[in-house]
Amino acid sequence: MNQRSIATVSISGALEEKLRAIAAAGFPAVEIFENDLISSGARPREIAKLCADLGLSICAYQPFRDFEGMPEPQRSRNFARAERKFDLMQELGTDLLLICSNVSPLALGGIDRAADDFRELGERAAKRDLRIGYEALAWGRHVNDHRDAWEIVRRADHPAIGVILDSFHTLAPKFPQRSIRAIPADKIFLVQLADAPRLELDVLSWSRHFRCFPGQGDLPVADFMQAIRATGYAGPLSLEIFNDQFRAGSAARTAVDGMRSLILLEEALAASPEPARATLPPRPRSRGVSFVEFAVNQPKAEGLAALFGQLGFRKTGRHRSKAVERWSQGGIELVINREPSGFAHSHYVTHGPGVCAIGLDVDDAGRIMARADALKAKTFHQPVGPGELQIPAIHGVGGSLLYFLDSGDSNWDVDFVAIESSAASDRLTAIDHISQSMPHEEMLSWLSFYTGMLDLIRLPQLEIADIRGLVASQALINTDRSLRIILNGSTATRTQSARFINEFFGSGVQHIAFACNDIFATVAEMRARGAGFLDIPDNYYDDLEAKYDLDPATLASLRANRILYDREGDGEFFQVYTHVFEERFFFEIVERRLYQGFGAANAAIRLAAQAREAAPSDASAM
Predict the structure, then answer these.
(1) For 4-270, which CATH class?
(2) What is the Cα–Cα distance from 300 to 316, expressed in whole angstroms?
């Protein structure tokens, strides 16, 4: 297995902080970026000692810029500059210097000229038992393709000169990958990995701001790795990520995300036509949401119970040893936890009323916990009463919990005493989707978490127009769509998503959508029980009338019940929202008719309506 490594430029903080986070995430090796060292108050020998104490080897020092093909006197100066870098490398204890292709306007073209420069530099490096790796930048002045970089290395024909291959510089410009297979393994000195979303952007800006870990973007990094494997390369695989979100985020979290991405990449390669050794137990099959647990205090519990009743839920169980209630309808199970101690209480004290845990139905809870351990997720254990069920769990978004129940298993008969409830029609059938809000810089992290842990695939990311800024929205779904999770994040500080994070004191579930088969009958019954719904302006329904050929009776029912409507091909979507509960979260009722989306066209309407209903103090600040 290739040694896992990461470049210090990939994460935030001072160099010493970065190194500690990298070691804590389990990396055995690191690339030290020149700017990190220059800005550090520690001397190179002190950094070398810190790395040794942390168990980190330094696999490369980088970058050395604008070297090959320079006229005099710059050429002579470059060799003198290189000798100084050799001194520094020996203090650090690394033997590899990364040289990226020249971007200087003074650079002279010519493969042979560049090869001559590298041959001479190789002689100098070899005297110190050092090596030089040459990387083609996608925006290099004369060399921007790994094929040209390899030809220069081949013609230099020196054992101390090799090529460095970077997935971004090959995949972003769409250079052919098969040519990599012809490069001898002993002439590949380092492989760097980065993914990126597909953007219509110049390649330099794209690289400097939007790189991400493998699996978080749209580039075929696994295909690139297949070409690398075909060479027999056995050296380090190093993550080199330039990303504004990562620079603003937690060094510890980003380092763990990086390690997770390499583990998942190895898993993808193991499942490829040219399999490698499997590194993870297979993803279990998810089968939907088992339950959602809300943490509240006694007064808030009464208000939430009243809302559940208005939505047609019935109290069906009471916990045997805790102040916890079960509320049911159709295939939906909700839990109100007002226990004055334990995890839920701590979550309430920290975040206020809201979702503290989600239970997921999977076909093998043991397997997912083994994956969680391998992917460095934080597991959770809490004492249970005599005879009560111990459900495996890990920490999820905003410090909430994800419980995993094997298909068919249930804790209701074990942990709860059944309560007789009046017979009522179950208008709501299942949880359609769960929407979680988080800081924008955490979105890629939780994307990797969910797709790495569960059998979820990501749909194209959308940008939703809040009246106070844009909100990025990323939907994740499993194959049969029994589990849908939406991640929302915004860099604007006053969007609904950002306000939720500020008022909720962190990330968490902002809303839950319930599915039904007849939204008009469902809403009518809910209104009869006292439920209130978000007010949608008449202008919206005037526009619907102009946009779609809806029959007058349907349009009148939509308007009367403040139900929103969307259409995709032959598919139709109906949705209505409750008022926000305690300024924390809200519920959505949806009906799907051959429709697979989430009503994105209506999101701006909903956000504007919620803004109008926001607390007066917020409105007065506008």
Answers:
(1) alpha beta
(2) 19
**Helix/strand/coil (H, E, C) string of 178-224?**
HHHHHCCHHHEEEEEECECCCCCCCHHHHHHHHCECCCCCCCCHHHH
Please give the single-letter amino acid code of residue 525.
Answer: E
Q: Answer for the pair 354, 439: CB distance below 8 angstroms, yes or no.
A: no
| Rounded CA separation 409/518 (Å) | 30
Q: How far apart, in whole angstroms, are the C-alpha atoms of residue 602 and residue 432? A: 17
Q: Structure pTM?
A: 0.89
Check for a shared fold between 286-418 and 428-620: yes
Return d(Cα 474, Cα 564) in angstroms, integer: 21
According to DSSP, the β-strands at 379-380 and 354-362 are unpaired
Tokens 């890990």 belong to residue: 394
Using CA atoms, how far apart are residues 440 and 461, in angstroms rounded to an integer? 13
* Backbone dihedral region for residue 67 (phi beyond 0: left; psi -120 to 50: alpha; all else: beta): alpha
- Between CA 58 and CA 27 the distance in angstroms is 11
Radius of gyration of the chain (CA): 28
Residue 73, preceding bond cis, omega within 30 degrees?
Answer: yes
Q: Please give the Cα distance from 403 to 542 (Å, whole number).
A: 45
HSE-CB of 603 using CA atoms within 13 angstroms: 22
Determine contact, residues 28/56, Cβ cutoff 8 Å. yes
Give the homologous superfamily in CATH for domain 286-418.
2,3-Dihydroxybiphenyl 1,2-Dioxygenase, domain 1 (3.10.180.10)
Q: Are 59 and 98 in contact (CB under 8 A)?
A: no
Domain boundaries, the chain: 4-270, 286-418, 428-620
In the predicted model, is pLDDT for residue 241 greater than 60? yes
The 10s digit of each residue's pLDDT in 361-404 is 999 999 999 999 999 999 998 776 766 678 999 999 999 999 99
Q: What is the tens place of the pLDDT at every residue in 569-595?
A: 999 999 999 999 998 999 999 999 999
For residues 86, 258, 240, 129, the Cα torsion angle rounded to the nearest 10 degrees is: 20
List residues bridging with 393 in a β-sheet. Answer: 380, 403
Alpha-carbon gap, residue 175 to 150, rounded angstroms:
14
Residue linked to tokens 């295909």: 223
Percent of the chain with pLDDT over 70: 95
Choose among 32, 87, 86, 85: nearest CA to 56: 32
Distance in angstroms (rounded) separating the CA atoms of residues 215 and 217: 6
- One DSSP character per residue, 590-608 reads EEEES--S--HHHHHHHHH
In DSSP terms, 162 is beta-bridged to 133
Reply yes or no on domain 428-620 having CATH 3.10.180.10. yes
Measure the CA–CA gap between 211 and 242, rounded to whole angstroms.
Answer: 5
Q: For residue 468, what is the DSSP state?
A: T
Alpha-carbon torsion (108, 111, 117, 122), positive or negative? positive
221 burial via Cβ count (<10 Å: 0-12, 13-18, 19+): buried
